[in-house]
Amino acid sequence: xxxxxxxxxxxxxxxxxxxxxxxxxxxxxxxxxxxxxxxxxxxxxxxxxxxxxxxxxxxxxxxxxxxxxxxxxxxxxxxxxxxxxxxxxxxxxxxxxxxxxxxxxxxxxxxxxxxxxxxxxxxxxxxxxxxxxxxxxxxxxxxxxxxxxxxxxxxxxxxxxxxxxxxxxxxxxxxxxxxxxxxxxxxxxxxxxxxxxxxxxxxxxxxxxxxxxxxxxxxxxxxxxxxxxxxxxxxxxxxxxxxxxxxxxxxxxxxxxxxxxxxxxxxxxxxxxxxxxxxxxxxxxxxxxxxxxxxxxxxx
Length: 300
Ligand code: C2E
Ligand code: MG
Ligand code: MG
Ligand code: MG
What we know:
By secondary structure, this protein is α/β, with parallel strands linked by helices. Helices cover 53% and strands 18% of the residues. It contains 14 helices and ten strands. It has helices at residues 2-11, 14-44, 81-91, 94-114, 128-132, 136-147, 160-164, 170-181, 197-202, 212-216, 222-238, 250-259, 275-283, 292-295, and strands spanning 47-56, 62-73, 77-79, 121-125, 154-159, 184-190, 207-210, 241-244, 263-264, 273-274. It has an eight-stranded mixed β-barrel with strand order 1-2-4-5-6-7-8-9, surrounded by five helices. A hairpin with a 5-residue loop joins strand 1 (47-56) and strand 2 (62-73). The longest helix has 31 residues, at 14-44. The chain is globular. The model is unreliable at 1-10 and 287-300 (pLDDT under 50). The site of one magnesium ion (MG) has 4 residues, from strand 6.
């Protein structure tokens, strides 16, 4: 991209060239500043996890939570993951950050488990670098042992692009060894990457998370509705659970229920919350605003 910018800048004259260069320097500088703050944040323990419930649509039962990173930086304010995760990936910082996330999420899930809070699964995002560098199987196994979380309570969310970065069959091998620990594998943002039907059959996957982009305009966009239908059907055929991301209103909920999508996650049920708020929310019984169980008969 930098090359293209340069090329365009050169083509349109000297002043533009200077403009583009200055802009690129500013961007690069901003990224450097953010990266140095992020390094400090890791050392000072300024990262935090929030938890967002996943709800079984047919019953309204909370079946899991996704752990989502939050960074409240003293200097930069609150920085969204979409801005700092890519930086962490490029710099390699995602390795220690990702290990911290996994340990913290497992520790928290184990604590809730001990308190008798009903939460079947803790879902944790894993980035490509984490998966392909080092030994993710060793790391996950070690953290499960350290935290005492039963493996069947852990779900790893992997992206499609991560799965297709496979030259040699190592991805398949890693997935099999992860599955052998007893955990579950979900494909995150399904439908936005290099979807390949071949890998869905080949890889030991448990769940498809339908990307928010397809759920958003379900009511108004027949093509989005068709894609969601297709993914739910695909899940049923391949015996994979389906989870819809970004469920925000009752219209989307009704559509997903009717189609037989298994679970949903989104602001309609709850936003991501700090651990204490999540536990209070869970403990306070069925306060799902949608009461999805009522207008959605259990699916066969
Ligand atoms: P994701 O894994 O697809 O996570 C779902 C994102 O959708 C979260 O954004 C969540 O807050 C947001 N969301 C949930 N329900 C709704 C809704 O109803 N409406 C809308 N508009 N958004 C909703 P968030 O927390 O900003 O995270 C963004 C992305 O950053 C995540 O997408 C994931 O790819 C990445 N990320 C977050 N935490 C981690 C982490 O611990 N490790 C790694 N590797 N990536 C992470
Ligand atoms: Mg995710
Ligand atoms: Mg997602
Ligand atoms: Mg997403």
